[in-house]
Amino acid sequence: MIARRTVALVILAIFSACSFVALEPPGLHAATPAATTQSTPAADLHKKFTDLFMEGQWDDLERDLAAAKEIPGLSPAQKSDLTYIRKSLADARQPWRKQAKLGKTFNFKPVVWGRPLIASFDPTAKASVQMNFTNAQAFATLMWPSADMDSTAPAEHGFTKGELCDLGLWSSLSMADAWSNIPLQTMAALNEPGRTQMQRYLDFRSCVGGLFHALPRARLLGLGQHSASFMNGQATNPTINARRAIGAMLIVEVLTHPDKYPTLQPSAEKDDWNEEAVALHFKDLIEKSRAQWSFAEDKSIREAILKFATPNEALVLKTGKVTLPNNLPVALDPEQDKPLQEKRTAWIKTQMEKNSKKP
Fold first, then answer.
1. C-alpha–C-alpha distance, residues 20 and 283, integer Å
2. DSSP codes, 215-284
3. First-to-last CA distance in the chain?
4. Measured torsion, CA atoms of residues 2, 126, 15, 207, in degrees rounded to the nearest 10
5. Which of 10, 41, 220, 318 is most exposed, with minimal Cβ within 10 Å?
6. What is the pLDDT along the chain (359 residues), one digit of tens a residue?
7. What's the CA gap between 185 and 193, in Å, rounded?
8. Which of 312, 133, 297 lies closest to 207, judged by CA?
9. How far is residue 287's CA from residue 293's CA, in Å, rounded to a whole number?
10. What residues does 4 pair with on adjacent strands?
């Protein structure tokens, strides 16, 4: 029995698998209400909280939420929205963040997918994620640019350094969580093809966990990245389908529920009704219309990500395939996925025809 084994992986730079073309200067997100509501004290507070949430004004939001223990007059939908905000903040802004921002090594127990992870933050580590196993107990050493946490300085493509860091650190934590739940004996027995399949699985769990745990603007950034993974330059990356599977999920979610996502409407040109074209169209829309991405859209997509991630956790590790919400698979092996992509494109065409006939 192996008493100790150390494995390490460097997470790719957050924009290494995709390249956006910046079409607008960076700016804060202004939430777009789904509908006009009558102004009341409760409605005004609801709007204030959803705006702060979408704009990333975390200190103000956390202070005002703490002061508003009970808000009389909220509708059931408004109560649901505030519950969503509180739960999202609890998931994404855990107490250890304050210590991590100091940029010093410390031990901590982040909670990822509801599971505690034994970990250490080390700003001098050579890898974003390094796993140590002692007597089958996993211990993760993590690194990210702590100075960028919550930074409003512009990064790339209209997003801030803080948003880039938020997505990156939660992707790293999600990979560590996935790694820590794989038996050490399983990893030790892997051959070369098995290690490749394991890497694809870990990348998938990293991507989907990063999206779920990150906050709205960082989540939108991730959706743009995964949509951009369909660009031709990514075809030679052996793990690219970990990202493309999430881009495919976004397509299925939007085409199945088009009324939920007014910001992401596919092209009406039938020549563009294929998976690659729709994904890249969504990438462009995220760039051009990111300021229109609403609270309702963020809430809908996060709920969809959870429904997508949960059944795929064990399934992908076992089969190497991701099951989309329409029950069609995406193989994480790009070669195996080619005939499956044709079936997904056929579904897109059928769904687009159906949607085009709606009044």
1. 8
2. -HHHHHHHHHHHHHTTSGGGTT-TTTHHHHHHHHHHHHHHHHSGGG-TT----S-GGG-SHHHHHHHHHH
3. 64
4. 30
5. 318
6. 333 344 443 333 333 333 333 333 333 333 344 445 568 889 999 999 999 999 999 999 999 999 887 889 999 999 999 999 999 999 999 999 999 999 999 999 999 999 999 999 999 998 999 999 888 789 999 999 999 999 999 987 789 999 999 999 999 999 999 999 998 888 888 899 889 999 999 999 999 999 999 999 999 999 999 999 999 877 678 899 999 999 999 999 999 999 999 999 988 888 889 999 999 999 999 988 888 999 999 999 999 999 999 999 988 988 999 999 999 999 999 999 999 999 999 999 999 999 998 87
7. 16
8. 312
9. 11
10. 134
Q: How far apart are CA 346 and CA 22, in angstroms?
A: 32
62, two tokens: 């956390």
**d(Cα 253, Cα 297) in Å, to the nearest integer?**
11
Distance CA 91, CA 94 (A): 6
The conformation of residue 148, written as its DSSP 8-state character, comes to: G
Q: How far apart are CA 115 and CA 173, in angstroms?
A: 11
Q: Which residue has the tokens 């040109």?
A: 269
Helix H or strand E segment including 304: helix 295-319
Q: Which residues contact 26 (CB under 8 A, 6 or more apart)?
A: 154, 155, 158, 159, 160
Prediction pTM value: 0.88
Q: Which residues of 253-273 are buried (b: 16+ CB within 10 A; e: fewer)?
A: bbbeebebbebbebeeeeeeb
Residue tagged 């065409």 (tokens): 349
